[in-house]
Amino acid sequence: MALDMITIRPYRTTDQQAWDKYVEKHLQGTLYHLSGWKNVIEKTYSHKTYYLVAVNSLKLKAKSPRKDTATNSINPIVGILPLVHLKHFIFGNSLISIPYFDMGGILADNDEIEKALLCEAINLGKKLKVDNIELRHIKSISCLNKSSKLKAQSSKNNSTNYDLSAISHELSTMSNQLSAISYATKSHKVRMLLELPDSSEKLMKSFKSKLRSQIRKPMKEGLKSRIGGLELLDDFYDVFSMNMRDLGSPVHSKHFMKNVIETFHGKAKIVIIYKENKPAACSLIVGFKRILENPWSSALRKYRKHNPNMLLYWTMIEYACDFGYNQFDFGRSTPGEGTYNFKKQWGAKSETLHWHYVSLKGNKFNEFENKSDNSSKYNKAIRYWQNLPVNLTKLIGPIIRKHIGL
Description:
Blueprint: E1 2-3, E2 5-10, H1 16-25, H2 36-45, E3 48-56, E4 60-61, E5 77-88, E6 92-97, E7 107-108, H3 111-128, E8 132-137, E9 152-154, E10 160-163, E11 182-186, E12 190-195, H4 200-206, H5 209-220, E13 224-228, H6 233-247, H7 254-263, E14 268-275, E15 278-288, E16 291-299, H8 308-322, E17 327-333, H9 338-344, E18 349-352, E19 354-359, H10 379-386, H11 390-401
Parallel strand pairs: 6-8, 16-17
Antiparallel strand pairs: 1-4, 2-3, 2-10, 3-5, 5-6, 5-7, 8-19, 9-10, 11-19, 12-17, 12-18, 13-14, 14-15, 15-16
Helix pairs in contact: 2-7, 5-8
């Protein structure tokens, strides 16, 4: 099906069920598109969120949609775009979909709706006077490969009507409706996914003997694993905050993790590896569709000789197999680096991430700097942070971390 006219409006609380159902049915829908993150981010860090909903405003016509469509006659939503406004005098002024995670961006039934959502995001960005928009995608946005002009008509209630039949695929710029913009796509990061059999026993047998030995070593040395919920949050945060300090990175708020577990109740779990009843490694996992995601994991350096990290990952993967997940997501990596090779040894395959950057200040891409990729500029700050007491980093870390989009 294809639409002649859509209306793009702000998310309403009554949209929650339809929004999440749309994400679940869309082939490109991820955990991080779910409406629950709006609540988590607002509740924890008080950032302004701008979740955009595209709904059909005319009758459906009998045309074929894009293959990853999720439209049906019951759900009126035909596209979504979750955006979070991060504004800080040091860390920048951006609309991001979505911050803190590897994925997000636009979900739409077809290319025309995708373009309309992008156009609305740009209009919103101009109103908020942001410097740029960041969209984090698994699949590259087609409308940034071939720009178009969108014909928009303003309406009441902060919504905009888009005449999709007026979109031209032949135009090379969007300048007739919008001022000139510069954009670029970075594809230097990958997502590491492990395909899972129907049992952890089968998976263990598929591993090379060296990997099986590395998994068993911490078990032989008395390390134990435990999976739970909020009752493990203190142990999780002790390990997580110390590891972040050692890496020289400000830590997320403990309340952020608490809100994640509460918002995704039943789907979010904490995993802890103990050495003599002391936490040595930790992770937080969240399941969506048939994928078990691992947004955060840490291990303490003083226990490195016992390989707690190997038992941690095996515990997560074993859980994923035994609870019916088809894939385990190890998270973001840079090909060739240590974490990439660690994940690859488990049999994980890489999937390229496409992070789109749209500058609303007219910067060319070589001037359009992504601060997260220039860590050398912050080496002095990292070294300073590594020398701070952990309790102090727990206190001031979240104040800084809330403004960092990665």
